[in-house]
Amino acid sequence: MKWAQKEQAVALRKKGASIKQIAEQVSVSKASVSVWVREIKLSARQRSALSERGQKKDVIERRREKRILNTETRHQLIIDSAKDQISDLSKQDLLIVGSALYWGEGGKTKKGMARIANSDPKIIKLMMRFFSEVCGVKAEKFRGHVHTFSHLNTKRAEQYWSNISGIPTTQFFKTYSKPSTAGTGHKDSTPYGTFQIYVCDTRVFLTIKGWIEKLSEFGDIRGIA
């Protein structure tokens, strides 16, 4: 038994310190403190002080939670207001959005193939609309490719991305499974890996390239002497 720590714990308890306070100050477990000080009787005043302290902590915690809730509410109001500024997405809008996404994320080296990868299912859905509705790509022309990790379920990932993209798994390339470095209990940020949309069509690739080049022209700073 650590006599010096026990003596310190007893002294603190006699002064009215809580079990938690003593454990933190003496650097021992609360269970040890409870055993050491169980024979010490607190005065009514000391018990009242501990009770008030606990109530104050509860009040502080409730106030903190309320501040967080109020902040989140204010933030959500800004987000909702911004969402209301976009009422719909025309075909022209979709052309610009899809081209901009491809500009940032799409493959630009293989001229006979348009491709874009992402782990966000909403981006994959939006790009499937872009390729289908704007580029006129037929369903049978799409190919999919899943990149995942060895500790994840490959078949589940393939079915997940098939459901998201609408591309049958029969039109998928062989899934790439990267050796996993995740430790035990590690939470996967991408439980289904990433998905890449492929369109093997030179005309589609060059058309998107043209749209991107046009968008790049709008980056010129104008009106500055």
What does this protein structure show overall?
This protein has 8 helices and 4 strands, in the order αααααβαβαββα. The protein is α+β, with helices and mostly antiparallel strands. A 4-stranded mixed sheet has the order 1-4-2-3. It has helices at 3-14, 19-26, 30-36, 44-84, 91-105, 121-134, 154-165, 202-217, and strands at residues 114-118, 142-149, 176-178, 194-199. α1 packs antiparallel against α2, α2 packs across α3 (30-36) and α5 crosses α8. 56% of the residues lie in helices and 10% in strands. α7 links the parallel β2 and β3 (176-178). The chain starts with a helix and ends in an 8-residue tail after the last helix. It has 2 domains: 3-79, no CATH class; 91-181 and 189-217, no CATH class. It is elongated, with a radius of gyration of 31 Å.
Summarize the structure.
With 225 residues, the chain is of the alpha+beta class. It has eight helices and four strands; from the N terminus they run H-H-H-H-H-E-H-E-H-E-E-H.
Helix content: 55-70%
Strand order in the sheet with the most strands: 1-4-2-3
What characterizes the major β-sheet? 4 strands, mixed
Distance between the termini: 81 Å
Number of strands: 4
- State the helix count: 8
The low-confidence parts are none
Quote the beta fraction: 5-15%
Averaged pLDDT, please? 87
User: What best-fitting shape do the alpha-carbon axes yield?
Assistant: elongated
